[in-house]
Amino acid sequence: MPKAVDLKVSKKSTQKALTLLRKLALLSHDLGLQRENDHVHIPLIRMPVAREQKELKSNLPRLQISKRQFLKIKKPPAKLIDLLSGKLPSRALASLPQAVDFIGDIAVVEIPPELEAYKQVIGEALLKTHTRVKTVLSKWGAVSGVYRLRTFEVISGEARTQTVHREYGGVFHVDLAKTYFSPRLSYEHARIASLVREGETIIDMFAGVGPFSILTAKNHGDVNIYAIDMNPDAYKLLKKNLIVNRVVEKVTPILGDARHIVNESLAGVADRVIMNLPEKAIEYVDIACKALRPEGGVIHYYQFVNKPDPTETAKSRFAEAVKQTNRRLDKIVQTRIVRGVAPFTYQVAVDAEIK
Asked: How many other C-beta atoms are found inside a 10 Å radius of the C-beta of residue 323?
C-alpha cells in the first residue's frame, strides 16, 4: 500500500474537508478514504504549505496531519471509444461494433466493412479495455455447414482459437474454429438444467461441447443423459469436459447423427429431449418424438424465425411438425425469444409437453 500525507478529520467534517481540499487542489484521486471510529483519513497529494495549512486549520480546527498508508482506488477501464478517439476518423467511430462476445479469455467481434482497415487498432484497444482478454477474433461470414462453424481471424493478441470458458459453475474447453459455442446461450443452458427433475433420462440431440448436458448433470444427482454430436472435434472436447466437470457417470457421449443414433438404440427411452440446432431442428422433430417414452415427455425445441411474430411462428411450425408424427402435442409450456441473431431474426425456444 502506498504511503501518503494524511488529513484526519471528524466524520461530521468530512464533506467540508473534501470541498476545501478540492479547492486547494490537494485531494488525491488515486487513493481511497479510510474510516476509523469517529474519524476519516483523507489522502493528500502532498504536504500543504504554510498558507494552505492556515486555511485548513481555520475551517477544520481539530484536524491532524501526518503520514499513513492508503489503498489505491480501482479505476474502471477506459471505454473502447475513448481509446480509439484520435486513432480513427470521427465518422468511423460511429460504426464501432457495440456487441462483443467473451468466451473464456477470447473476445469475438464483428468488424464492419468500413472499419476493416482499422481492425488491428480495434483489437489492441479491446485488449486494453478488457485486461483478462488475451486474444481478439474477428468474425468472417455467418455460421454455416453441418457442424455450424464460422471462420475467424486473429486481429490482436495470442494467435489461437482455443480457450476455457466458465458459466454457472461449468467449465468448458472450446475451440471456436472447430466447434460451435455461444456465450449468449448461457442463461438458456442454466434454465433447461433447472427444469429437469431427478430420475429423468435426457437426450441432448445436438450437444456440441456439452453445455446443456453438463450443467444439467452438475445440478442433479440422479439423471441419465445421452449427449450426441456428429462433429468429431466437438465430441473430443465433450468427452474432455465430462471429465473436467466430473459428470462422466451421468452423461454418455455419442458420436454420430442424432437420427441414426435414436433409430438404432435410443427410441422410446427419453423423458426429455433438447433440440438446440435452430437451423435444422424442424427436420428432427419426428425423431425427437420417437426418442420420447411411450407415455410422452418434454421437448425443448429451438428455431430461427424472421417473421413479424417470432414466438407464434415458432409454435405453429413446431405444432405442424408434431402432427406429422404418431405423437400428440399436449401443451406448449413456454415460448421465449432467446436472442436476436440478425435484424428482425430471432432464436426462439419452445418448451412442449408431448403425449
From this structure: 11
Beta strands in the chain (DSSP E): 3-10, 34-36, 39-44, 64-69, 100-103, 106-109, 135-144, 149-157, 162-167, 170-175, 201-204, 224-229, 251-255, 272-275, 297-305, 329-342, 345-354
Q: Which three cell numbers stand for residue 290?
A: 420417437
The predicted model scores a pTM of 0.77
Given a contact cutoff of 8 angstroms between Cβ atoms, the answer to whether 161 and 176 are in contact is yes
What confidence tens digit (pLDDT) does each residue in 244-271 have? 999 999 999 999 999 999 999 999 999 9
Exposure pattern of 209-221 as b/e (b: 16+ CB <10 Å)?
bbbbbbbbbbebe
Can you give the length of the chain in residues? Answer: 355
What does pLDDT average to over the chain? 92
The set of residues, in sequence order, having a beta carbon less than 8 Å from that of 215 and lying 6+ positions away, is: 167, 168, 169, 170, 189, 190, 192, 193
Cell 489492441 sits at which residue?
124
Q: What are the φ/ψ torsions at residue 302 (nearest 5 degrees)?
A: -125, 140
Chain centre to alpha carbon of residue 137 = 16
Radius of gyration of the chain from its Cα atoms, rounded to whole angstroms: 28
CA angle 146, 143, 193 (to 5 degrees): 80
The distance in angstroms from the start CA to the end CA of the chain is 66
The domains of the chain, with CATH numbers, are: 3-69 (3.30.70.2580), 80-160 (3.30.300.110), 181-354 (3.40.50.150)
